[in-house]
Amino acid sequence: MVPVRFLLLIPLIALLNGYGVEARIRRYKWEVKNEFKSPDCYRKMVITINGRTPGPTIRAQQNDTIIVEVTNSLFTENIAIHWHGIRQIGTPWFDGSEGITQCPILPGTTFKYQFVVDRPGTYVYHAHYGMQRDSGLYGSIIVGLSDGESEPFAYDYDRNIILNDWYHNSTTEQAVGLSKVPFQWIGEPQSLLIHGRGRFNCSSLSVPSSDPGLCNTTNPDCFPFRLIVVPGKTYRLRVSSLTSLSALSFQIEGHKLTVVEADGHYVEPFVVQNLFIYSGETYSVLVKADQDPTTNYWITSNIVSRPAPNTPPGQGVLVYYPNHPRRSPLTIPPAAPVWNDSRPRMAQSQAIKARRGYIHTPPAVSDRVIVFLNTQNELNGRRRWSVNNVSFTHPLTPYLIALKHNLTHAFDQNPPPDGYDFLNYDIYERHPNANTTSGNGIYRLNFNSIVDVILQNANTMNPKNSETHPWHLHGHDFWVLGYGEGKFDMFNDPNKYNLVNPIMKNTVPVHPFGWTALRFKADNPGAWSFHCHIESHLFMGMGVVFAEGIEKVGKLPSSIMGCGQTQGL
């Protein structure tokens, strides 16, 4: 249980941060359990919240307190839920990162998360234990402005859509394959979901099933997602991606998308036909229902940045009222972008700037620069992902608890490297020495220091191949200072940084054979994960941990303990 004095501190923290006094408490009770569902017409066991996947949408206003009581009714699996994009100021123990900020929630037990949503915007929540996000444990968080405040753009209606990819193998089967020798890759997803609905081609099953319900295209679970619009009205679509693997393009046939928000920050508006979106990102786009109202239109998602010829596109329907919701569009779905053309994806990344009047100017210089080289390697015959040749492994004792209680034997006290061999490493070639090391050391940051992180992509274990990696930082937003192709030049590329109107985000892509530069202030006491948001990549070691201001963290609630060396604390 959280000590009473810390519950009393929550409104005080809000007041000290300039928040109003009208904040509300929003309470939710969730039961997490296994159920059989057919989101893409193929029946499999999924993880639901109160019988649903995606789970319930959390709706709140800025400065509200969210209380979620989670009961783990899974028979054999632990869980943890991360509140993606919520900075957890004053409550780092409720970030929901198993192994980083808490022990997992055991089967048959109930855990209470309690935190303040301090900024308006579009966010998500999802499992942060193993690869459970891929099993359906996810949903949306919509935080509105405080009463009396308005946004810098107008719309008539507000809707949210979560994009996902979907596998028929269980996450346990995937994890076993990723860990075995020889390595067994999870492959491309069987389908793409638009707000929990997709369409798998049942006739493509390699072995026909004698069970007619195993794959049934008449199952209502997999009827296409339909968004009903009123002609002439403008809609704010909050589009989020929680894919396990895939980078996506999203489009609505015949309609322009005006981007106005990214990860909770207002964007200088720009118009796209395809919205490129990476796992962990959230956007708001404005769509006006200004086309022929006598017909309906396709909503589609397609995989980009990797070949997936056997994965059908995600398909939904934009329904113009009063057309019948089941009426299909008269056209064929619009063509997908070329999957391996990174130029439009890079162009969109570079187009995202902070909106005039809402610019948070970054500090002119940083106190520390850390360069992270992303590589694919091998460790004892197993395929791994590494950062600066260190493949991350979780310790048994969560970092936040180990740091606060000075449990020095809980993890490696030696820090990982701040860089790599910049001069000699060829990012375009498979490295001749593919071996890596494993470790669980952390990056200790001086409190309130300004930190630059350079994410550098390189060749994988496959010749002439580099992948897209969306990196997500817990507990902070960061300024996106720039993107580039090739190897980062530490002497010249910083001169190209955008220090005038960079967007702030919590998740950002690193494009193939490219780099992305970030800057953030280490001003949130706690231990925070920074990792690739692709489930299999994090599982294979693609992440690090930052620690800052641990001495300023309050007394930890006993509810987060119970594993590793925390027993008995």
UniProtKB/TrEMBL annotation:
Heme listed as a keyword: no
SUPFAM superfamilies, A to Z: Cupredoxins
Q: Supply the Gene3D superfamilies for this chain.
A: Cupredoxins - blue copper proteins (2.60.40.420)
Report the GO terms under cellular component: extracellular region
Q: Where in the cell is it found?
A: Secreted
Taxonomically, which superkingdom? Eukaryota
Known EC number = 1.10.3.3
- What is the catalytic activity of this protein? 4 L-ascorbate + O2 = 4 monodehydro-L-ascorbate radical + 2 H2O
Q: Name one GO molecular function term.
A: copper ion binding
The record places domain Plastocyanin-like at 33-143, 161-321, 433-549
Please list the cofactors this protein needs: Cu cation
- Cleavable signal peptide: 1-23
Question: Which keywords, in A-to-Z order, does the entry hold?
Answer: Copper, Disulfide bond, Glycoprotein, Metal-binding, Oxidoreductase, Repeat, Secreted, Signal
- Family assignment from sequence similarity: Belongs to the multicopper oxidase family.
Subunit organization: Dimer.
What PANTHER family would the database entry show? L-ASCORBATE OXIDASE, MULTI-COPPER OXIDASE
Record's protein name: L-ascorbate oxidase
